[in-house]
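During the reporting period the student researcher (J.K.) took over the structure-prediction task from the postdoctoral fellow and processed the backlog of single-chain submissions. One of the processed entries is reproduced below for the supervisory committee.
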Amino acid sequence: MVIYPLFISGAEIAFIMFILVMVFGADKIPEIARGLGKGMRTLRNASNDIKSEIQKSAEKQGIDTDVSKDIKGEIDKVKEDIEEITGSVKRRF
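J.K. obtained the following structure tokens:
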């Protein structure tokens, strides 16, 4: 089963594509796609710039920006707790 964004099925996507071809024509669709691609790339670059500026500012202020260490530590604690609980259950069988 393939899950599409916004819960749209394959038939609905095909219908939308058909309408796009009918409205814009086959020669305009590549231009539209190219424009959307450039817009998405610009948005991604802007968000990466914002992330780097926030990270630089946090480092200057001495704020720890490495959240992954905290998350990994919590996951390791949960794993240990699960092993502690299931270890006694596994030994009984």
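The committee noted the following: The CA atoms of residues 54 and 60 lie 10 Å apart.
J.K. will present the remaining backlog at the next meeting.
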